[in-house]
Amino acid sequence: MSTVSKIVPFGSGSRIVETARRTLSTASQGIDALEVQFSDRDFAAIFLRLVGVIMDVRGRLIVTGMGKSGIVARKLTATLTSTGTPAIFMHPADAGHGDLGMVTPDDVVLMLSYSGESNELGPIIHYCKRFGIPLLGLTARSESTVAAASDVCVLLPAVREACPNELAPTTSTTVQMAFGDALAIALMEMRGFSADDFHKFHPNGSLGAQLLKIRELMAKGDGVPRVREDASLLDATMEMTRGRLGGTAVLNQDGELVGAFTDGDLRRTVTDTQHLTEPVGRYMTPTPLTVGSDDLASEALRLMHLHNVTLLFVCDGGQLVGAVHMHDLLNAGVA
């Protein structure tokens, strides 16, 4: 049985589309209002205090919230933990049934509540006051319980919900989410959190694949086919076959990379001459495209597509250290 007591037909598709557009416009106005807040000196000062407290925490940031604010708090927790700020979500309904035990004197609690009056937050507030746990508040009402109890309280702008009944949290949760992202990125930059750090926390999935370094995928040592430039075409062909990368590096007498000889070069060579005893240096591709071992694998794949090649040699400080094939990149999920 439907829980909808009454269905009012819209009458036209254009009205449905207009409702969706109006919802987005209302959400956008909420974010604009939040951005304006940061231009206020007092608001900016409170935000800096908030960041300072979190930066100085010796333990973890305990993030909590009830209802829709709780869902935003979960998302904020996930963003913080993946960008260098140790955080954990604590559900208010479970807090009074033992989960308050996860809060230590080294921790800080960040409490999200648009109204600032969720009853389930009471035990957490009392616990923080009793044991001297710093409490950070994020609310829209300055005279609320959360605002009064917080050691540092960020007052979000009071916004109009997109819900036509002004009941369902819509714009307010959008503003909370946007503020959470702003906070997480500010902390991320303060910590100097790099792409390498990000990859450590995201080793799996497509995101992790885009952050892979070439050194993690390249062939190295004896796995890199190589010949001297005075080696014969036959020797180069045998080395290519051994290496199974579709090509071989060509080195000069000082061991420096001076060219590449690929399957394509071989086919063109055999078409022109049958003298497989001739030196490969005469038929190689000089000054081949190279990458460094610390370059991103995604950049290597971009270069391969741009220059229509499937093999790149890896050089550090002018010395050949590896080779990477397009198949290795694609098999690793690099796109």
Compact summary:
Belongs to the SIS family. GutQ/KpsF subfamily. With 335 residues, the chain is of the alpha/beta class. The protein has helices at residues 13-37, 41-56, 68-82, 92-95, 122-131, 145-149, 171-190, 195-201, 205-210, 233-243, 263-272, 297-307, 326-331; strands spanning 61-65, 87-89, 108-112, 135-139, 152-155, 226-228, 247-251, 257-262, 285-286, 290-291, 311-316, 319-325.
Structural notes for this entry:
With 335 residues, this protein is an alpha/beta fold. The chain folds into 2 domains: 13-193, Glucose-6-phosphate isomerase like protein, domain 1 (Rossmann fold, 3-Layer(aba) Sandwich); 214-331, CBS-domain (Roll), CATH 3.10.580. The protein is 44% helix and 16% strand. It has 13 helices and 12 strands. The chain has helices spanning 13-37, 41-56, 68-82, 92-95, 122-131, 145-149, 171-190, 195-201, 205-210, 233-243, 263-272, 297-307, 326-331, and strands at 61-65, 87-89, 108-112, 135-139, 152-155, 226-228, 247-251, 257-262, 285-286, 290-291, 311-316, 319-325. It has a 5-stranded parallel β-sheet with strand order 2-1-3-4-5, with helices on both faces. Helix 5 links the parallel strand 3 and strand 4 (135-139). It is elongated, with a radius of gyration of 30 Å. The protein starts with 12 loop residues before the first helix and ends with a helix. 32% of the residues are buried. Its EC number is 5.3.1.13.
Query: What is the terminal separation in angstroms?
Result: 47 Å
- Summed up, the helix count is 13
Structural class: alpha/beta
CATH topology of the largest domain: Rossmann fold
| Content of β-strand | 15-25%
